[in-house]
Design goal:
The structure holds two protein chains of two kinds. Chain A is mainly alpha-helical. Chain A has helices at 4-7, 14-18, 35-45, 47-72, 87-98, 101-134, 136-149, 158-164, 168-193, 197-205, 210-248, 253-262, 266-294; strands at 76-77, 79-80. Chain B has a six-stranded mixed sheet with strand order 6-7-8-3-9-10, with helices on both faces. Classes of the chains: A mainly alpha, B alpha/beta.
């Protein structure tokens, strides 16, 4: 950090005059601001974010507390908490699981399935959406088929997937692919339909041909919607993956959770659920981060 | 004659026997009929007219976005078949690429032409310097004010060295003070580059202040109602807008346009109607009085 004197701008004295309302002047004129005033200023600028973080932490703690109370007193009020594991037992099974290579393998396998299925969906869905958005004929041919297949939930594809693919692994990846494919395709198409025609004309006036217009205008203009599609697609990919693993898997975090139920390992049920939640959150954060990297013009 | 001109100088726009109709279910609707205009090389020509008169349609046909139903559009004797970098265009909505920085926007036309990166970066910097935007080269357009955006828009259109510059109400979205400055900047650039300009506006003062010649269009279907040479000397100063010569031109154009605007609005708008609500309420609501 540079010295406080360097941080001070001439305008710093202005608010004291301009806002001579109920707020006392923060900067004493002509002397460098003390650590206290700087801290106060930082606090004022970040008040909103600090508040949100504080409330967020408090609400998570409250959630754990309620969970703890409900399970220690084995509350039965419409729903039965008699067999529900308490946060502490879940934590105990978590520490145990962290040293269990089998649990880590479940997680790794699920992540691999998500990675392959989702990546394939993005690699197929985004270009297909771009081409459908640009060429009417392609749209007219593919759209009706897509519209019929789209409402079928990925779980309903499980029997068909088992028939189609020689191995279990392939059919689970296929289901993950299907789950994320349609949100990605539909959002890419939506993005393409919203591209400002004036921007296309501007590019044409500057000598851009079809291929350049596609690369320089249609694609970047659709990127925000493509990333919406990727985020939604990632969510649905996890939903589909867990369903597929529970039905036909031998490994994976979904299978782990279901197996825990069959083996009456109640703490592991909650552990599996929380692991799924954390993995889902992490993967959408990854996509959001990638979006900010790819679209620097949108970050404020 | 025009062929001879075309061979010796650049940026000669000619629009002959031009008409343009849109197909609708009730048959074709004429947007522009029987129009002849021309812009001599290096000339600054404006088109004014009531809203919806087809002046933008005409400009878009010169740009190559619309095909005439009848007639021809030529630039230097060559038929206009589609948009090209030879005819630079500036839009009212700025239409800068939001995902490109200011400099990348200016570079775009040069990039399309296949100019190597380092060369086009240098060219873009020079142009931005002329427009006083060097400090903003790395900014994204969203962060700029309207006047700055449009300066980038103009510089971007000029970067490829077009023969003609087409402007579609480029300052329409700017506040009055900014607009005056932008007019001055555009005039300076035009005089330096000796490029032909076709400028569409509904602002009469702007048209007179900038142009060598002004075409006034009729209400829809649009055609040329009058062609008014602007003999004001150059370089033009803001103070000229108060001169009797300017005011006389303004009065003339104003009355031409007013006639057409009333026609364009349709219905029974007359001077009586424009006096406003001539109803005494006496403390009652409008519904009660009626």
């Amino acid at each position: 950090m540079s010295s406080p004197a360097l941080l001070r701008h001439p305008e710093d004295n202005m608010p004291a005059i301009a806002e001579a309302g109920p707020v006392p002047a923060v900067t004493p004129p002509a002397t460098p601001p003390s650590f206290g005033t700087l801290a106060l200023r930082w606090y004022r600028l970040n008040q909103g974010r600090l508040r949100a973080t504080a409330i967020g932490i408090a609400s998570l703690i409250a959630f754990l507390l309620v969970w703890h109370l409900l399970t220690t007193y084995r509350v039965v009020f419409f729903v039965r908490f008699t067999n529900v594991p308490s946060p502490l037992t879940v934590y105990a099974s978590f520490t145990k699981a962290m040293h269990d290579p089998k649990f880590l393998m479940h997680i790794l396998l699920s992540c691999r399935r998500i990675f392959i299925g989702f990546s394939l969906a993005a690699i197929v869905g985004v270009p297909l959406g771009l081409i459908m958005g640009r060429f009417k004929l392609v749209h007219e041919i593919i759209f009706p088929v897509a519209e019929v297949l789209r409402p079928i939930p990925a779980i309903a594809w499980v029997p068909m997937a088992i028939m189609l693919w020689p191995t279990n692994e392939q059919s689970i990846v296929f289901i993950t692919f299907l789950g994320s494919f349609f949100p990605i395709l539909v959002n890419t198409l939506h993005g393409m339909s919203l591209v400002d025609p004036v921007l296309v004309r501007a590019a044409q006036c500057l000598g851009a041909r079809e291929r350049s217009i596609f690369r320089e205008v249609y694609f970047p203009a659709s990127l925000p919607h493509i990333f919406t599609g990727l985020t939604v697609g990632m969510g649905v990919a996890w939903v589909s993956l867990i369903a597929a693993e529970m039905i036909s898997g031998q490994y994976g975090i979904g299978y782990f959770t279901w197996e825990a139920y069959s083996l009456v390992q109640y703490a592991d049920i909650a552990l599996g659920m929380i692991a799924i939640g954390v993995l889902g959150l992490g993967s959408s954060l990854l996509i959001r981060g990638a979006g900010q990297l790819v679209m620097p013009w949108r970050s404020t | 004659m025009s062929e001879m001109l075309a061979s010796t100088s650049k940026g000669h726009i000619e629009v002959k026997n031009f008409s343009l109709a849109y197909e609708t279910i009730e048959g074709p609707v004429q947007a522009v009929t029987d129009t002849q205009i021309h812009v001599k090389p290096g000339e600054f020509v404006s088109i004014v007219g009531p809203s919806g008169c087809g002046k933008s349609t005409l400009l878009n046909a010169v740009a190559g976005f619309l095909k005439p139903t009848t007639g021809v559009v030529t630039v230097d004797g060559e038929f206009v078949n589609g948009p090209s970098a030879e005819r630079g265009m500036v839009f009212q909505q700025y239409s800068l690429f939001p995902w490109k920085t200011v400099r990348e926007n200016v570079e775009f036309g040069l990039k399309m032409r296949g100019m190597p990166r380092s060369q086009r970066e240098r060219a873009a910097r020079t142009l931005l310097g002329l427009a006083g935007l060097e400090a903003f080269e790395k900014h994204y357009p969203e962060k700029l004010s309207g006047g700055m955006k449009q300066r980038v828009g103009i510089v971007r259109a000029l970067a490829t060295g077009p023969k003609v510059l087409l402007l579609d109400e480029p300052f329409g979205a700017l506040d009055a003070q900014t607009r005056v400055i932008m007019q001055q900047i555009l005039t300076n650039m035009w005089q330096r580059l000796k490029i032909s300009v076709l400028f569409v506006t509904h602002d009469i003062d702007e048209a007179i202040f900038l142009s060598d010649r002004v075409y006034c269009m009729t209400a829809r279907p649009g055609s040329i109602k009058a062609e008014i040479p602007i003999p004001l000397e150059r370089p033009r100063q803001q103070s000229m807008m108060m001169s009797s010569e300017f005011l006389a031109l303004r009065r003339g154009l104003m009355s031409l346009i007013r006639e057409e605007s009333l026609k364009a609005m349709g219905g029974e708008i007359n001077d009586l109607g424009m006096q406003g609500l001539n109803i005494e309420l006496h403390g009652h609501s409008l519904v009660e009085v009626l």
